[in-house]
Amino acid sequence: MPEPLDLDLLPAPAPRQALPRLPRRAPRLPLLSRRIRLSLAAAAAAVLAGMLATAALPPLLARLPHLPERLPAPLQHWLAQRVAPPDWHALRLGPVLAEASRRGVLVVGVRAYARPAPPGAPAPAEPDAFDASLARQLAAHLGLRLRLVGLLGDAGNPGDPRNAPALLPGPRPDLLLAGAGAVPAAPAAARVPTAYTGGMGQVLVLRKSAYRHPADLARRSVCVAQGSPYAHTLAARYGALPRTYASAIRAVSAFLAGECDGLADDTLALARLARLPEWRFYRALDGAVAPDNGAAQIVLRAGDPLSAAYVERAVRYWKSGGALAQARERRAADLAFEAGQLQDGLVCHN
């Protein structure tokens, strides 16, 4: 092993003539890194687009039914232009949908709640527009008229039997579209496997709070809407305490009133809220919240594998054909409009 050099014994370096100073230039490494990242992202998008453009598209979507809503918006639009709808008339109907076809009307239970209204003029419960959009598309595939029956839910904690959703008076629904955790227990044969809500979620908190990641909300309350696909993830993965409200706008109102430490919803919806001037006091936590795609979100009134398979095909086309993306955008715009009315004092909650 060589001995270490003794710096005191080294000859002094010869004096060198000072060079003129050149103006300092910004390092190019960060710019290069950014270019590399953009190139890699473009290459990944091109590879994915190539995969989707081949015959591998149907098997890929069959294995990954939630892929469409995870793609960037341009790729979602690209995909929607290339996915052919099924031949709806060629698909077999089970007893539940066959009965609806005979009477000419599809009855669907959806979430329902009162919208913000002027003080002293309470509004009646109305169907959730997001749920109704899928119900309309399903009825159109079947060539049937649509009747919606409201599914009411009260504020409370998930799993509390006192807050179980109840149907408004009306005909017996052929199926329920009520989001994760809002549909009653049903046999596996009556459930539709693919979730229809989709989309990654986020959590908003006060800008000056110490929370940085959803994991920081362990044992902290988070406002969510009835049927929120993020409630289970927040509780099971991060140890948060979801507080369920009858609608997204009521969850927003409760969060603004300080009833919860955070507000969880679709990233698109929270992004629209963040654009409002009054929301400059809030910020999104780092890290997305994955939706619970394993819980039953659609349930038929009876065990019927054929009808469940038909609805399953409709939900998958709802995702890949672009209708889900449009419904998410409309929901985000509606929520931002209602939140703006609340904060302007033009309306209140009943």
Concise overview:
This is ABC transporter substrate-binding protein. The chain has 350 residues and is of the alpha/beta class.
Characterization of this structure:
This protein has 350 residues and is of the alpha/beta class. Among the domains are: 91-198 and 293-344, 3-Layer(aba) Sandwich (D-Maltodextrin-Binding Protein, domain 2), CATH 3.40.190.10; 201-284, Periplasmic binding protein-like II (D-Maltodextrin-Binding Protein, domain 2), CATH 3.40.190. The chain is built from ten helices and eleven strands. It is globular and about 60 Å long. It comes from Cupriavidus malaysiensis. This is ABC transporter substrate-binding protein.
How much helix is in the residues?
25-40%
The major pleated sheet works out as: 6 strands, mixed
Number of helices, counting only DSSP H or I runs of 4 residues or more: 10
Beta-strand proportion: 15-25%
Give the CA-CA distance, first to last residue. Answer: 84 Å
Low-confidence regions = 1-20, 22-32, 154-164, 346-350
CATH class of the domain at 91-198 and 293-344: Alpha Beta
The dominant shape is: globular
State the secondary-structure class.
alpha/beta
Question: Which fold name is given in CATH as the topology of the domain at 91-198 and 293-344?
Answer: D-Maltodextrin-Binding Protein, domain 2
**Rg calc:** 27 Å
Order of helices and strands: HHHHEEHEEEEEHEHEHEEHH
